[in-house]
Amino acid sequence: MTGRVRQLDEVVIVGYGRQRKGDVSGAVTTVRTDDMRQVADASFNRQLEGLAAGLQVSTTSGEPGGGVSLRIRGGSSIEGGNEPLYVIDGFPVYSTVVSASAVSGAPLNPLSMLASGDIASITVLKDAAATAIYGSRAANGVIIVTTKSGQSGKPKIAYQASVGVQTLAKRIDLLDARQFASLRNEALYDANPALGAHQYLSADEIAALGGGTDWQREAFRSALTTDHHLSVSGGTRQTRYHVSGNYYLQEGILRHTDFSRLATRVNLQSQLNSRLATGINLSMAQTGGRLAPEGIITSLLLMPPTATVYDKVRGGYTLRNPFENIFANPIASLLEQTNTSRSFKLLGTAFAEYTFLPQLKLKVMLGVDYQSGHERRYIPSTIYEGKAAGGIASVGTSEHRSWLNENTLTYTATVARKHRLEALLGLTQQETKVEWVRTGASNFVSDKLSYNNLESGAVVTTPYSYATRNALISTFARLNYQFDHRYFLTASLRADGSSRFGAKNKWGWFPSVGASWDVSRESFFGPISHIVSQFKLRTSYGLTGNQEIGNEQSLATLSAVAYQFGGIHVKGFAPDRVGNGRLGWESTSQFDLGLDIGLWNNRFSLSLDYYHKRTRDLLLNVEIPWTSGFQTSLQNYGTVVNRGFELALQSHNEWGKMRWDADFNFSLNRNKVVQLGGNAPRYISGLYYILQVGQPLGTFYGAATDGILQPGEDQGRGALTGNANPKAGDRLYRDVNGDGKFTVSADRTIIGSAQPDFICSLSNRLAYGSFDVSFMLTASVGNDVLNLNRQALEVFSGQQNAAASAAERWTTSHPSLTMPRAKLDPAPVFSDRSVEGGSYLRVRTVTLGYTLPAGFARKLHIGGLRWYVSATNLLTLTGYSGYDPAVTTAANAVDQATDLGIYPTSRTCSIGFSLQF
Description:
One of its GO terms (biological process) is siderophore transmembrane transport. By secondary structure, this protein is mainly beta. The protein is built from eleven helices and 45 strands. Helix 6 runs antiparallel to helix 7.
């Protein structure tokens, strides 16, 4: 058995530079881009799931081009952002959505503009030694993306193509028409027994119903996805180029939804003379899609199966739920509404690098990030949502403009062959402007022109417009020192001045220091070096910040209002927010202790990290005295701690023609609130969450269920139902405060947490000769999910459809201990019935490939050819009753793991090939 030596001389991309992998003192993970591209998805950040220890990926929408939420070493901000900073080819870009809010539903992922086939490397920076160089934007970690560039030599042409079929990965079990009719009969009888037990349908009518309308089957479909990527690269010793184009089309598994991308990228680098090098990196992408209307998933789940898609009597669509005015016909909403979003993005950088001395270089970079968006929506008068208004149209446009100037001076020196020094000085400026406008109309003469003829609408919607900007100016320095490839030291300092914060707190300082010792290079290590090929200790400490709070939050603002003077309406302004001149960024101090071990020429390697993050000055809307005229003020209060372990194992083996690579990642994070504003012990966030000292972020807060009231218990335990007139079959709740009765406001308690005990992944790649097979498993253990879909589906009112569990509801002949009786007018209580275990084990990817032998490729005059078949999200083992446990509708750290009407994830089976010339 021979080992494939893992190269410690591999170059790793770090902030504002590159380092030899063996010289890095920080916690840095380089993602295998080949593994990433095996996941069929439009967005590269969703493809990162399971590929780095400490990185947690959650879906905010399974829609084509939909959103995703990433956490590196846990979330720490309450009011601010928790997403990592993305740096694409040296340009820090924002992953937040810029939208005019003219359309309905979840917005598209702004990072879907970048095709994964254009990515050369992705580096995840986790500890302060690696991230502090990015200062006030690095508290949530940094993801550095480097796109492909050309190499000297004759032109190389590469073409990749794939086509796949997507299906709904899981259905939610619901009542069929017969079961629903029986439920409705029971609910009506409970409300008015005098009218008999079959007030809705008789037993014969129920028997004749059949299964009724399966709204999930009507709404979902098998959908195609196709991806084409063509690139040409090459160059001379003086000039290198890489040009690529990508066309991506993904139909949605929900009818009338899709996403498309047409992108091109140019990378050109030139060595003009022995001292001056220049380059340009330019990408352009046109993306767009038809979006699912907001609430459509909830609507199709709750629509009664006895209702029909089409009205057999009047013709056309059935307009709405026949028993309630809440939900419209979801199929009509899907097929008849126009709900589109289209955007154009340009991201470009140009640089010039001048070499004064072989050791001294100055690099100047200019960059621009421009995005324009167009949103269009029309609800015709022929469906329920638009009928009363006579058709509803809305249009919006948005622009995002950001420019960057970056200047860095680097000095490297080697003294006496053992001492190596690298110094970096930098000055950078970035300014971002965002503008959007939205308007609309309703009550149209005709639906034919939809949003293209707003002036024909009798009622004009109030127009809205918005403009904002922010600026950041920074200076930074870093010093790397190493002695004899054994001892390593890195130190950095960054000063950021941000327009987002108060006049008295504009500047922040972010230092870090890291050190490492490669013990395996010591002479005393020689006797075991043939077994232990690397033994490296690492440690770091530093300070980073979080400025993602939005713009102008420190300023007092006015909002437009309407006044009335003498019966005349006059537009004016009124105070909207109190200013806070001391508002500053959230600061995170982080300590990291790491160990890297390599065995048998690094055929087997291990990286273990312990970290402790303390985030202070959390941004909170704190209650202030009513005499101020305001209820709350955004202030720096509170502290959150994240601490945990990360383990990364890798194995690289070869036996003759067989190769086997394996990767295992394990992450354990413990999150805790240690202080809240004004020394308050807790802060209730909305209807479902609580911030409480000693508890993690994402803690669910509601009623604890305690069985079902049974006959004969009405007097003794009826008060624990919370109903004025309790009956057998009502749900019982725990009396938390001990007053002998249940009330929602007084008896809520902690009922779960979104934080997992641990997450992990396992990847294996096997190759024999020309054949290869690979798979990846991902898992999350111990986390809970707030399933608000389940809460709605366990309202057994007979007004809307219910979960299949309603078949086990309490009746006199079946006195259930877990499911309540049918009731026409229930008062739903948020309880632990809506909080489910979200643990899962997922077969994330499976791929089987065949590579044409090199000899045959040469005979065909091609550089290489590979075919493959693959599957994404092939199987998920979980006890969670919803579509997918790895979801969240909210991107903040408090309202985590909330599942409410999220577009489901799909299972994708693909076939493709890659061809090189």
